[in-house]
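Action item from last meeting closed. Structure (267 res):
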């Protein structure tokens, strides 16, 4: 939009410099083209500077909002592409929720400083993997992490990315005894994405049934397990890792959901 305004301003400047003097000359009025050009150029420069300032302000606002959610690579893609609608939009995404299993009991014998250090280590590892597969860090939920794939940057393969990230997280934490195992829930579907909240407290997040299903599946997943909706599993080439299919009703929902239970190689 800003580029179009700058282009229109340049075209108007050209017309004013060359066309207006000719029209007035036909009526016996002489206008100095140089003065018209300088006046038009000054106006065009003001418009250009205004649009440049607006663009930089918008980029700075997006960086402040998304820098803690996105990897630098995805952040650059967001800045180069169409601006996301922060007021809220319906979008098909995949939600990943990974929770540390046994963390409460594990923390009982640790000092608060040790608990924070260990928790930060686990959450940092999960975040790095999420960023590696192009996911968005939505929030930390105590000893769990909630991530979005397919927002704010639209991804055609968001379900495949989320499943690959879940397998990588589960494998890492299952194969290393120094880490606590995780249970992961995955759900693919529509959700409302944008700044949600009230007053001065807004948060970029996703809400809807898709998020709720991922939360319920995460609660049911055992250590080293990934519970995923059928839309997530059948989107890519990872169907062979499903060890069991179930159709079940989840807490708080009336309709049944078909899910696949996946185990990483190390679990």
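Sequence:
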């Amino acid at each position: 939009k800003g580029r179009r305004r700058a282009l229109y301003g340049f075209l108007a400047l050209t017309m004013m410099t060359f066309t207006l003097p000719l029209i007035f000359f036909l009526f016996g009025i002489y206008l100095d083209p140089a003065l018209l050009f300088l006046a038009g150029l000054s106006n065009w420069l003001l418009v250009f500077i205004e649009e440049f300032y607006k663009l930089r302000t918008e980029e700075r606002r997006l960086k402040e909002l998304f820098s803690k959610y996105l990897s630098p690579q995805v952040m650059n893609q967001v800045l180069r592409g169409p601006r996301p609608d922060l007021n809220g939009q319906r979008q098909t995404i995949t939600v990943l929720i990974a929770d540390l299993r046994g963390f409460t009991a594990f923390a009982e014998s640790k000092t608060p400083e040790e608990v924070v250090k260990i928790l930060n280590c686990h959450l940092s590892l999960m975040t790095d993997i999420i960023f590696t597969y192009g996911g968005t860090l939505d929030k930390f939920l105590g000893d769990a992490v909630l991530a979005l794939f397919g927002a704010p940057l639209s991804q055609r393969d968001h379900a495949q990315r989320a499943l690959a990230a879940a397998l990588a997280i589960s494998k890492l934490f299952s194969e290393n005894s120094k880490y606590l195992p995780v249970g992961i829930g995955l759900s693919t579907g529509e959700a409302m994405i944008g700044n949600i909240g009230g007053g001065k407290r807004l948060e970029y997040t996703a809400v809807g049934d898709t998020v709720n299903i991922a939360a319920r599946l995460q609660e049911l997943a055992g250590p080293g397990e990934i519970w995923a909706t059928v839309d997530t599993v059948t989107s890519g080439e990872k169907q062979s890792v499903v060890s069991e299919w179930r159709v079940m009703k989840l807490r708080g929902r009336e309709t049944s959901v078909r899910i696949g239970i996946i185990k990483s190689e190390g679990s």
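Note appended to the action item: The chain has a mean pLDDT of 80.
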